[in-house]
Specification:
Restriction Endonuclease, eight-stranded mixed sheet, AIPR protein, alpha/beta, AIPR_C, single chain, AIPR_N, 4 domains
Length: about 700
């Protein structure tokens, strides 16, 4: 199949994906809905691979002619001083791949720049408070002193006519400015192979030595090849001059750091003590798809060329060396940079490169289990999702272990409309969910909406950390999988209700997370997840509770931010915000209370387990055990659970009981432990006290 055919097929996949995303929110044939869906798809994928952090999709446009402006979303990384603004250009599909030319790109970036200028100038004062454009514009204005650069991004489902972009202004409204185009071809590379970078060919034979002197490191396996070398400073400057930030696109942190201002420490060393640069600097880490080796002029072996060269660590060093020459005329003849070059198969770039970068300056061991896409849990989730039918035996849920696997699987099924409909009948678009989605479902259920409100990757890392605390190599059972799905159904229904409530004009993601977390928290996780799985939906009483609580959550959510003088959206990420929302009076309607199960299972999930003893007569010993459990605080029960996991003294189900008792304690023991829970709890207390975890007077 030709490259053009590949791109046409991917364009069809993307259009199908856009339709799936547009369906829940409105008319999937509407251009505005499709453009918004494209924005969500690309921004979500860029967030998943780290290009964006916590992107917020928010369409806003206005003005006329030369004064028109438009923005489709923004991102403010927590640990950086840049602002990301993005705009989307959606083109109606045709039999051939649509193209976007330089004039369209120029016009789009001009509109985005105008919006940025308005935001910096305080244009939010002219907008209606409470609406999403107001919140976005106000936040950018409030944080303007934090930014030292702005990154303008253009998303499009068209193909860039000319890959080398037009040179644009270096500064906008007093900030360093960079411009990035994510067209169809570049997005396809990201989706299909995890590669968001250009495949650069670097010929090294013109060097004085006839190549790059290097020593191959023998590692005892055939999985990777590594060379150590010394890069002449002038070579790095020349490479950066020719290829620019495309050398650094694979590693986001290096990419963005390099596009900022020159490092003063590096510049000082280059100017004053160039011969000490290698001693002072940590060097760079390079990956490549392929390395061509051969004999150099002096008869030794070396590297003659690199295919797909990317600098994944040391981007700021490289860019600063280049700037030192261009802006300050520094002589690089005595500057050398130590380097490590690793050959990685293109199909494994997205898996391995983040870890090569992360561990470049550490001695931490990297194992296959560290690569989250290949974690046994995610493989197990995917496996169960492909074989487990819903109770009506008509559909399955589709777990996307890798980004974009749903549209890829759909296209693999067949390119005809009939084949695609058959696939969607078996795997409905609304029943697809990713690793990041699963992390949201689970952390909301555990009462962590403030964690879910943080960067999607931070929430996912938290989820994986908790998952690793269970046991190595853990795979979900069918029952556990079904309850994950039930939690997903709960989350998605809350999300749907929030989106359709016109009174909720902003912060919908946060309102969804907090409302879903409240449901789990205030029912002490006694929502019947098994029933939700069986019915593949929520009961009328649960739906009515969501419809009642969600607007109230929206009303109270800004309180902590307003009280503490913080930006409202930032306050949603705090424990204080969650504590405040939980402290309000949330009454469980009688109809919902009647359908809650009498007890949670041992793992704290809404499933009636062996602890259920409704109607059983309590003995004095039972009363004593219950009283003993009630003496401990929620923090103490969590301490017992954590100690049991770390020491191996408690089994998984015992730690689950401890976690459940912690939730009861947090509620002020309005829900008493069952006889069996109290029996297990008192035994754990005795174990913990014997080990010195709890004092005898605790």
């Amino acid at each position: 199949m030709s490259k053009e055919s590949d791109l046409i097929n991917f364009s069809r996949e993307l259009e199908s994906d856009i339709t799936d995303h547009a369906k829940p929110d409105g008319d999937p044939s509407s251009a505005s809905f499709r453009e918004s869906a494209l924005t969500e798809i690309i921004s979500d994928d860029l967030a998943a691979c780290g290009v964006l952090e916590s992107p917020v999709v928010c369409h806003f446009e206005g003005g006329h002619g030369a004064g028109s402006f438009k923005v489709d979303g923004y991102s403010v990384p927590e640990e950086d001083s840049r602002l990301d603004l993005f705009i989307t250009h959606y083109a109606r599909p045709s039999d051939e791949v649509q193209t976007i030319n330089a004039s369209h790109i120029e016009a789009s970036f001009n509109k985005l720049e105008r919006y940025f200028g308005r935001a910096i100038a305080g244009h939010h004062r002219n907008l209606e408070p409470g609406l999403e454009p107001y919140g976005m514009t106000e936040r950018i204005h409030d944080l303007r002193s934090k930014f030292d650069r702005v990154n303008f991004l253009l998303f499009t489902n068209s193909r860039l006519v000319q890959r080398r972009e037009k040179e644009r202004k270096q500064e906008v409204n007093g900030l360093a400015a960079t411009y990035d185009v994510w067209d169809l071809e570049r997005f396809r590379r990201l989706r299909e192979s995890g590669m968001s970078y250009e495949t650069l060919q670097v010929d090294l034979r013109s060097l004085k030595a006839g190549g790059l002197p290097a020593v191959k490191v023998e590692q005892g396996n055939n999985k990777s090849q590594t060379w150590v070398t010394i890069f002449p400073g002038s070579l790095l400057a020349d490479l950066y001059d020719e290829h620019g930030a495309r050398l650094l696109e694979l590693n986001v942190r290096s990419y963005l750091q390099a596009r900022g201002k020159v490092n003063k420490g590096i510049l000082q060393t280059l100017r004053d003590k160039p011969e000490y640069f290698m001693a002072y600097n940590n060097g760079i880490t390079v990956v490549a798809e392929d390395v061509v080796t051969g004999t150099l002029h002096d008869g030794t072996d070396g590297i003659l060329s690199l295919k797909g060269m990317q600098i994944v660590n040391g981007g700021q060093t490289t860019a600063s060396i280049h700037r030192a020459v261009k802006d300050f005329g520094v002589d690089l003849s005595r500057v050398s940079v130590q380097g490590k070059i690793t050959v990685v198969e293109p199909s494994r770039f997205q898996e391995l490169v983040p870890f090569i970068s992360r561990y470049s300056n550490t001695q931490n061991k990297i194992t296959e289990s560290d690569l989250t896409a290949n974690h046994p849990f995610h493989i197990g989730m995917e496996r169960v999702s492909r074989r487990e039918w819903t109770p009506n035996q008509q559909t399955r849920w589709f777990y996307e272990r890798a980004r974009g696997s749903y549209p890829t699987a759909k296209m693999r099924e067949g390119t005809t409309e009939l084949k695609r409909r058959e696939f969607e009948k078996r795997y409905p678009p609304e029943q697809r969910f990713s690793k990041e989605d699963l992390a949201k479902f689970e952390n909301v259920w555990k009462g962590l909406p403030h964690v879910v409100s943080r960067h999607a990757q931070k929430n996912f890392v938290y989820f994986m950390h908790e998952l690793g605390a269970i046991r190595d190599g853990w795979e979900p059972t069918v029952e556990e999988y079904r309850r994950y799905i039930a939690k997903g159904i709960l989350y998605k229904e809350v999300q749907r209700i929030v989106k359709r409530n016109e009174a909720i004009t902003a912060w919908r993601v946060n309102v969804t997370a907090y409302t879903a977390a409240l449901l789990a928290d205030k029912t002490v996780r006694r929502i019947d997840l098994d029933r939700i799985w069986r019915e593949q939906g929520l009961s009328p009483s649960l739906m009515q509770t969501i419809e009642s609580w969600a607007p109230a959550v929206f009303k109270h959510l800004p309180f902590i931010g307003q009280r503490d003088g913080k930006h409202i959206e930032e306050s949603f990420k705090s424990q204080a915000c969650w504590d405040y929302i939980r402290s309000l009076d949330w009454n469980i309607p009688p109809a919902l209370d009647r359908e809650l199960i009498s007890s949670t299972g041992a793992n704290g999930d809404g499933a009636a387990g062996p602890d259920s003893i409704s109607g059983e007569r309590l003995t004095p010993h039972d009363h004593n055990n219950i009283a003993l459990c009630k003496e401990l605080s929620a923090a103490q029960w969590l301490t017992i659970s954590a100690w049991g996991q770390k020491s191996g003294e408690l089994k998984e189900w015992q730690r689950g009981v401890a976690y459940t008792l912690a939730s009861y304690a947090a509620e002020g023991w309005i829900r008493l432990p069952s006889v069996k829970q109290a029996k297990h709890g008192s035994a754990m207390i005795e174990k913990a006290r014997s080990a010195g975890i709890l004092n005898r007077d605790e």
